[in-house]
Amino acid sequence: MPERYTRPHHHERVQTTERMKRAWEAEADAREAVQTFNARLEQGRAIWAWPTIAAALTGRYPWLTIVCESCDGVTDLDLRMKPRPPEASIRVVLHDVKCPRCNGHGRPRIASLRENPG
After folding, report:
1. Which strand (E) or helix (H) includes residue 64?
2. How far apart are CA 29 and CA 5, in angstroms?
């Protein structure tokens, strides 16, 4: 005989609601941090704080646009593809990037974080 649906108790609904609110707040904070970072990059201002990989993923900005300074080649990198420590800065990714055009002889730099590849 199939089990009957029982409605969750009040405290379970309250806990679920609180968990959802915390998740929304975390996403909003992460989005703000990434948007501030992108704005500073666009303006050519100094970067004083690099977002973490967790902030980029929580804020739903998983695509990193990387530019090679020697040949101006542009590469999009998905942060979700390789497991990395979430508390690490997004600069850690630059150690794994090698420009396909100039065979890694150029210096890669981060151009922006994006929601979609561009």
Report:
1. strand 63-68
2. 37
